[in-house]
Each structure stands twice: as C-alpha cells, then as structure tokens.
Design a protein that fits this description.
single chain, alpha/beta, CBS-domain, three-stranded mixed beta sheet, 6 helices, 6 strands, elongated
C-alpha cells in the first residue's frame, strides 16, 4: 500500500503560500500562475489556514465582494486538517471524504513537507489498481 510519501516523490513538494494580509486577488493570481486550486496561508512560519477556489466562490463571488478589497485572512478556512507523510493512501482518501476537504498539508517530523489534493490521491489509487489488474490478467493468462 502506497503512502503520501510516494505522491510527493512523484509530484514534488513545492508549497505555494500567501499571508493573511495578501488580498484574495493576489492569492488567486498565484493560484492561476501555478495551476493549483488552493494555497496555504502562512504567517511568521505558522500555518494559519487554507484558501481554496471554493472559499473564493462562496465568500467573495456569491456575496458580491471584490477580491481586490478583501484580505485572505477574512475568507480562508482556519481549521486546517493535515496528514502525516507516511499515512497510507486509502486512509488519506477516507479522511478527505469524511472531512469534506480537497487539499491537505503534509507533515513529516512536525515540518511542512508538501500539500496534496484529492486528485493526487485518486490518481495514485487508480495507478495502484491498474497494476493489480495487470498482474491478475497476466496470472490468469499464464504470463508472468
């Protein structure tokens, strides 16, 4: 069973972040530039929250506010759920489903090691299942 460590080995451990004092527009610009759906909110090396496209849609667009006038600290999700780098993929998927989150910061020895998305987890699960299917087909067909 693969762990989050394997996901980060494949995708990298880059973490893009903003502060609570950045505007939502600045955060969205960074997200667009990096083709990501969420950024971590970090002040003074402390994780304060996560801001996602969902936060923007629900707390800016639907409320008729301007992303250039609102600070990230006003709309971020402050309750951050995170995961250990050695957690297995299926446990991670269950956590994301149960807590209804799409992005999880990853920690190793109390240090931020990266961030994963539900897409990363689904891709890894599908890749694992394809390997098992191929092995079973080879076994059934007498090819080893």
């Amino acid at each position: 069973m693969s762990t989050i460590r394997e996901i980060l080995k494949e995708k990298g451990s880059d973490v893009w972040s903003v502060t609570t004092e950045n505007t939502v527009y600045e955060a969205l610009s960074l997200m667009a530039e990096k083709s990501i759906g969420a950024v971590l909110v970090i002040d003074n090396n402390t994780l304060k929250g996560v801001m996602s496209e969902r936060d923007y849609a629900r707390k800016i667009i639907l409320e008729g506010k301007s992303s250039k006038d609102v600070l990230v600290g006003e709309i971020m999700s402050p309750r951050v759920i995170y995961i250990d780098i050695d957690t297995n993929i299926e446990e991670c998927m269950a956590l994301m489903i149960n807590k209804r989150v799409r992005h999880l910061p990853v920690y190793e020895n109390n240090n931020l090691a990266g961030i994963i998305s539900i897409g990363d987890v689904v891709k890894m699960l599908i890749d694992e299942k394809e390997v098992v299917i191929n092995e079973l087909e080879n076994y059934i067909n007498g090819r080893r």
